[in-house]
């Protein structure tokens, strides 16, 4: 092994200390990206599922109205003139319906509300859905086609007209394409979203953005391959405009139509590259600083193993100081952790929670923080889907920075526990947070956390984790306050007391 110089040895030591830290930070950034990507997939799927449910509701309402019309006594006795008048009345009551049509099994139109009664009419332009109605005795929903009377792109809802248990006619209504386009616009999801509705063949009949260029076209190849494989799916696709999307698909069990949509992958990937660039830049700066320091120290060492050892010890001391704050939180988080991935997620979420209250304190120039701001910033990620489950009350009061940090960390731990095991783990639980200022001593804050409506607690946990230790010990040891944590059958109750100043 070559005899390396003191400078080379010190440079290797610095690199060996800083580079793993850079790799560790980059790994955390990537894991955060993976979590954000998975969350984005879930959010997109829930949104698309909501659009599909709204589509199903409108189609089922239209189907139900047609089935009522199919029971008309005038239609049953073959009085088509009277039934035509009934259809005209129906159109006035439901102006969103463009046309109604009655046809027999051969596709011959008997009534079309766009033409006067007793007018000769062309046959139906969509025999596939009509044949399905006569074959199955059930409602059918057409693919996109061009009507023989209107000469416009149409989608129809068709129901059987029964007499003595046999299908004698097909009653259909054409749903205006604009209705579906308006349904997409009503979602108000923002310009970054792409939404589309497809018929059973994968033909687009409503879309945002660029409906003029895309309606009537088939889905892009990357989406078409997966569009009807499953009822719901999540995948990466490329739009007709060439934009890569985080995509979800939900197929309607009612009509067989499919709703698809997504957001650009760049929305998630851009923060990844930005954070990696920042991590590498800071790591490189630390590495360059460490190397410069090591080389400068080495140049001052004249000779001797004693000075050499002193230099190494000094360098190790400075590197350890750099990692001290991260090591303290990491040690508590990863100690006795059964699942490394879960431990990494907890470690990352605690740093994020600490960063939230740091943002509040920074906005106030570290002169203190408003308790309501602390509560809102800390709990916002946990109640973003239903803020009505969070009940917050208390006077306007500001607390010192140290108290603000500990209150925020305690609320984060309580909210994390509630989302996994407590009131926020289901659909019905509530969180009640209120605070008061002691009347006897106007300088003391008393904050109460109370859960209700969640799973019943059978017994208090026998093992105290990082969150319990933080809540119960940090208030008394670091700010001379008080914290009590109770596991009641109705839910967790926590009381925090600390000095305002």
Distance from first to last alpha carbon: 61 Å
Calculate the mean pLDDT score and round it. Answer: 80
Shape: elongated
* Extended strand count: 18
What are the main properties of this structure?
501 residues; alpha+beta; Beta-Lactamase; Heat Shock Protein 90; six-stranded antiparallel sheet; 18 strands; elongated
Please describe what this structure looks like.
Mean pLDDT is 80; it is low at 313-326. Helix 9 packs across helix 10, helix 10 (340-363) packs antiparallel against helix 11 (371-379) and helix 12 packs antiparallel against helix 13 (466-478). It contains 13 helices and 18 strands. Among the domains are: 62-178, 2-Layer Sandwich (Beta-Lactamase), CATH 3.30.450; 339-501, Heat Shock Protein 90. The protein has helices spanning 6-69, 73-76, 80-93, 127-136, 177-185, 211-214, 221-224, 266-300, 305-334, 340-363, 371-379, 401-420, 466-478, and strands spanning 99-103, 109-112, 140-141, 145-146, 153-163, 166-175, 194-198, 204-208, 232-238, 244-251, 258-264, 369-370, 390-393, 398-399, 430-437, 444-452, 482-488, 491-499. Helices cover 48% and strands 21% of the residues. The strands form four sheets. Strands 1, 2, 3, 4, 5 and 6 form a six-stranded antiparallel sheet that branches. With 501 residues, it is of the alpha+beta class. A hairpin with a 6-residue loop joins strand 15 and strand 16.
Secondary structure layout:
Blueprint: H1 6-69, H2 73-76, H3 80-93, E1 99-103, E2 109-112, H4 127-136, E3 140-141, E4 145-146, E5 153-163, E6 166-175, H5 177-185, E7 194-198, E8 204-208, H6 211-214, H7 221-224, E9 232-238, E10 244-251, E11 258-264, H8 266-300, H9 305-334, H10 340-363, E12 369-370, H11 371-379, E13 390-393, E14 398-399, H12 401-420, E15 430-437, E16 444-452, H13 466-478, E17 482-488, E18 491-499
Parallel strand pairs: 13-15
Antiparallel strand pairs: 1-2, 1-6, 3-5, 4-5, 5-6, 7-8, 7-11, 9-10, 10-11, 12-14, 15-16, 16-18, 17-18
Helix pairs in contact: 1-8, 1-9, 9-10, 10-11, 10-12, 11-12, 12-13
């Amino acid at each position: 092994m070559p005899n390396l110089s003191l400078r080379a040895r010190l440079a290797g030591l610095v690199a060996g200390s800083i580079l793993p830290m850079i790799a560790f930070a980059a790994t955390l950034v990537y894991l955060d990206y993976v979590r954000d990507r998975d969350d984005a997939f879930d959010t997109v799927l829930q949104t698309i599922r909501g659009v599909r449910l709204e589509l199903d509701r409108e189609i089922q309402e239209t189907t139900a109205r047609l089935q009522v019309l199919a029971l008309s006594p005038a239609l049953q006795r073959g009085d088509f003139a009277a039934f035509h008048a009934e259809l005209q009345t129906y159109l006035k009551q439901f102006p969103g319906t463009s046309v109604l049509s009655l046809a027999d099994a051969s596709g011959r139109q008997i009534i079309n509300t766009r033409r006067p009664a007793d007018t000769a009419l062309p046959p139906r332009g969509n025999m596939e859905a009509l044949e399905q109605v006569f074959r199955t005795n059930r409602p059918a929903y057409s693919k996109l086609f061009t009507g023989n009377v209107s000469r416009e792109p149409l989608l129809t809802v068709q129901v059987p007209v029964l007499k003595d248990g046999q299908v004698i006619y097909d009653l259909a209504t054409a749903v205006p394409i604009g209705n579906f386009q308006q349904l997409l616009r009503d979602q108000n999801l923002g310009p970054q979203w792409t939404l589309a509705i497809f018929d059973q063949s994968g033909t687009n009949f409503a879309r945002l953005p660029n409906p003029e260029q895309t309606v009537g076209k088939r889905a892009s190849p990357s989406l078409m391959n997966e569009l009807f494989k499953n009822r719901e799916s999540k995948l990466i696709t490329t739009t007709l405009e060439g934009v890569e999307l985080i995509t979800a698909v939900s197929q309607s069990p009612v009509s067989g139509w499919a709703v698809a949509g997504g957001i650009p992958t760049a929305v998630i990937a851009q923060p990844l590259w930005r954070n990696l660039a920042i991590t590498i830049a800071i790591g490189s700066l630390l590495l360059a600083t460490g190397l410069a320091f090591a080389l400068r120290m080495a140049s001052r060492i004249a000779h001797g193993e004693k000075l050499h050892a002193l230099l190494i010890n000094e360098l190790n001391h400075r590197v350890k100081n750099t990692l001290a704050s991260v090591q303290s939180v990491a040690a508590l988080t990863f100690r006795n952790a059964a699942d490394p991935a879960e431990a990494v997620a907890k470690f990352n979420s605690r740093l994020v929670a600490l960063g939230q209250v740091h943002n509040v304190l920074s906005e106030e120039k570290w002169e203190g923080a408003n308790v309501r701001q602390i509560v809102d910033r800390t709990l916002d990620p946990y109640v973003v889907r239903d803020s009505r489950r969070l009940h917050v009350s208390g006077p306007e009061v500001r607390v010192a920075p140290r108290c603000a940090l500990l209150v925020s960390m305690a609320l984060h731990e309580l909210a994390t526990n509630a989302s996994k095991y407590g009131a926020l783990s289901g659909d019905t639980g509530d969180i009640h947070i209120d605070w008061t200022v002691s009347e006897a001593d106007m300088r003391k804050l008393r904050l109460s956390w109370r859960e209700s409506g969640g799973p019943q607690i059978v017994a208090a946990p026998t093992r105290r984790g990082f969150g319990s230790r933080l809540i119960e010990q940090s208030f008394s040891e670091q700010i001379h306050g008080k914290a009590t944590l109770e596991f009641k059958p109705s839910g967790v109750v926590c009381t925090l007391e600390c000095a305002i100043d």
